[in-house]
Amino acid sequence: MIKYPQKVVLGEITVRDGFQHEEKNIPTSAKLWCLEELILAGFRRVEVTNLGNPKGMPQFSDAEELLKAIKTSRRVKDLIADVELTAVTIREQAVDKAIELKKRGYGPDRILQMVSTSASHMYKNSGLDHKGYWKMTEECIKKAHDAGIKVNGTISTIWGCPIEGPTELKKAIEFTKRYLEIGADDIEHADHDGSAPPNKAYEYFSSLLDAIPDPKLHIAHFHVTRGWGLANVFAALQAGIYQFESTMGGLGGQPANFVDGSPVAGTGAYYYQDPNIVGLVSTEDMVVMMDEMGIDTGVDVNKVLEVGKMVEKIVGRRLRSECVRTGRIPKERKL
Q1: pLDDT (tens digit, 9 = 90+) per residue, 243-253?
Q2: Is the Cβ–Cβ distance between 48 and 73 less than 8 Å?
Q3: Chain-centre distance for alpha carbon 205
Q4: Which domains does the chain have, with CATH numbers?
């Protein structure tokens, strides 16, 4: 008999990771609507924005405005205290910004630091080598904790690097241990370019839980570049992982290098010629699949599908969710 967790914790990251790949600016009002609707649907972990320099990533030029808007939203005022809001803070200046906003009363509850096992990817994402990164991160974790902010340590290129090629799984486990030793509160294990086949996803998470057996420390983050996203979710479930991240319609990927008709820095040239093939596991499809498996997701499945339809209108195109079109499997027989 196949065994897997009967209850999961889902992080919805459309508004940050999903929209960062869009080549048109998403209005702040649309981002706020998405955050509110996701919270009303039952999500208690959402990523809001990136606090890095918006010159290279103009999609996040409204970071402060958006954080303040969701913190003070009337629509979710009775729920927001139980919601963990995350902002990405790759460099120290962004961490300082998060702390400043926290003091003003509308900063993030949690920030995200990011390391790649690949040296090339590490430098391209952050402008730092591994030695410089670990030194900075240790200092950032301490001052974030002093300000009452949790810190997530994200590890990418676990299963492969779009720049260097194959990577070693054991290196990511070593990086996980290092993050935890310097104080990270939880770890996101990310397949940022869809390199993980399901057997390798199972192998990694099984080895990870053998080495660090507390599953509440680990979050799985899969992309669907090659169409393996949900297969990898299932593999991670079988290994014992119960925390996952996803985006509506499978949006997301590398920060856009072209926004509203103008080239921008982003993180440089796209890894793939077709920018529409990247993206995360679809929230709609994952939630419906888990619901059919008898897993408690904690969210309103029907509302998630409705939000998915509206997100397609916001970005202006058909997205990669199947269930937003097919719906749920009927629960009653048709006469």
Answers
A1: 999 999 999 99
A2: no
A3: 18
A4: 9-326 (3.20.20.70)
